[in-house]
Amino acid sequence: MEIARIAHNPAVMGGKPCIRGMRVTVGTILGLLATGKSPERILKAYPYLEPEDIDAALAYAAWRMEERDEPLVMS
Question: What pTM was estimated for this model as a whole?
Answer without folding.
Answer: 0.83
